[in-house]
User: Fold these one by one.
Assistant:
Number 1:
Amino acid sequence: MDPFISTVISLSSLALLCYWFRYSCLLILAAETARDYSEEVAKANQLSFREVLSKLRNDDTGNLDNLHRCLQRDFAIITYLLDHATTASAESFFEDAMLHAHYRVMNAWFRLTRAWSHEDATQALAEMSKVIRHFANCLGERTMAPASVDWI
């Protein structure tokens, strides 16, 4: 096969994979559950992602680096808590892994764009906040779910 055609096919496949990944992550983040536990989890663990999202929505960004540090702290706390919470299903494990990767990509995108594109950096922080909100809700669902009973 011609190397040019192989390269075009490979690059097209990579572009489609990236598009699928981003679209899937955005769908996961847009899904709503019957009850949102994120606020309770945020209060109980002193997470600031809700305030960051509020500032981003109201265009009260100030210093983006401070908002970024708050999100980094929140992400470290929430991932620690999720790692030590009850086990998740295989489906949520895959979604969690995808959202972890999405958070890291948005983190890298923020670092790349903060110097030259305030709008792109703000959008990256907003998506990072939504990932943390999703994880906080998952933590609430997992810890508030009724314990399974073994019948003998």
Number 2:
Amino acid sequence: MKTARKHPATSAFLAAPLRLLLLAALLAGGCEDDDDGGGGGGGGGDFGDRDPTHCAVAGDSIAVGYGDAGAPWPARLAAMLGCPVANFSAGGARMTGQGPSQVGSAIGSKAGFILIALGANDAINGADPEGVKAVLGALIERVRAVKAVPVVGNVIRMTGEHALFDGNVDAINAAIGDVCGREGVMLVNLHGAVSEGMLQPGGLHPNSDGQEAIARAFHGKLKGRVE
């Protein structure tokens, strides 16, 4: 929220009403960002020609929905926010692969908030965490350049037949956390939000409870910013 410029009052009689009007304007200006790394936007930020009531998602099959998952989390998030959430996700997508093209599509939607939820397939394919850092940093810069707000979700845990990749998940999540911390970007802790019981057999894709948990985790960061 921009700080209002103070104008000298012409008399003591006018000063009090002016202060009251200023206070009313400040209170009506919308929600403020909290101190979790807002990334420059939301709550009265400058979105240019973008729509601050719209979100767009770049993600993988977890965001598309797979198997016994019910509605995917972007659709659930839209219902929670009462605002549109465009989904540009695709099965098998990687941060270091399809990430740039997906984020480009999300940017093209004119959404004010770009949600990046990639990294699981990078972990499965043994991607270099430093490469993930480089790509994510570039994506964040690209999103901010168009006056949108980047919001990044880390990778959920992997169990069952996918448990052998869980060490890679930790490394990818450390890379994601480093970039978000350095850049002051909102980080959504999906790894902590989705428990083992929220995964389908195979230990990779969330079930309906897992999809709900992901939606609620993003909603927790976006509530008061997007609405």
